[in-house]
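Quick one, probably user error.
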């Protein structure tokens, strides 16, 4: 196989590996959320909102501080993403004006069209990361108001609404972080399709251990959820 043809084979295969993994992850989150970190964390946040809004006057400061920390994390990622986007734009414009093409270190297709696609892909990832983190900040800011509103015990709709908004904010934060993950193999693509393909395979393998839970974690969370439900039932009977 010629050097110029490697990009047309290894790059789609590498993206296909990551795509298949994320399709499997999405299917697992929908069918058995307890097997994934995203599913267990969503249930934990639901229980946290339930505990906070059971007495918002007492737990209001804790709720605002916790959500503020999440907003700061999203702000940091959004700032990083838009900064990297600006730097890449300046680099691409300076490279195109100077007429420099790919380096000799690159083993693969060195045409100007492929180089433009590489930088545009990285730029698109950081733009998606920025937009997702902005949406995450939006939902977190809204939850900071919802969690501190005095709510009666029987008003479950307000609690469910606040928990749903909190999980949406965390979902956008996860999507923004996932865009950062995807940008790494795309960055290695600038050095050739072989590093990009190897990075896609290694990253899918590493993400599997980061996204799934162990049996001990599942048992621990299941036990804590059952204890919380017992406490809620006893409070409702009283």
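Nope, works fine. Designed sequence:
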């Amino acid at each position: 196989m010629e050097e110029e043809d490697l990009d047309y084979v290894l790059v789609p295969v590498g993206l296909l590996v990551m795509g298949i993994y994320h399709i499997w992850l999405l299917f697992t989150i929908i069918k058995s959320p307890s097997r994934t970190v995203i599913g267990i964390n969503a249930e934990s946040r639901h229980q946290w909102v339930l505990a906070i809004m059971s007495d918002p006057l007492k737990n209001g400061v804790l709720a605002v501080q916790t959500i503020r920390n999440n907003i700061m994390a999203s702000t940091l990622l959004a700032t990083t993403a838009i900064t990297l986007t600006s730097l890449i734009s300046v680099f691409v414009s300076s490279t195109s004006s100077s007429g420099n093409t790919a380096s000799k270190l690159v083993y693969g297709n060195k045409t100007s069209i492929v180089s433009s696609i590489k930088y545009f892909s990285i730029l698109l990832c950081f733009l998606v990361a920025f937009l997702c983190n902005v949406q995450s900040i939006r939902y977190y800011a809204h939850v900071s108001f919802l969690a501190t509103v005095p709510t009666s015990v029987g008003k479950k709709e307000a609690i469910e609404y606040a928990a749903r908004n909190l999980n949406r904010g965390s979902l956008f934060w996860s999507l923004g972080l996932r865009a950062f993950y995807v940008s790494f193999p795309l960055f290695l693509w600038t050095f050739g399709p072989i590093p990009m393909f190897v990075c896609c395979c290694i990253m899918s393998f590493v993400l599997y251990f980061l996204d799934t839970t162990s049996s001990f974690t599942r048992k621990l969370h299941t036990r804590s959820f059952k204890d919380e439900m017992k406490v809620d039932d006893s409070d409702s009977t009283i």
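The mean pLDDT is 86.
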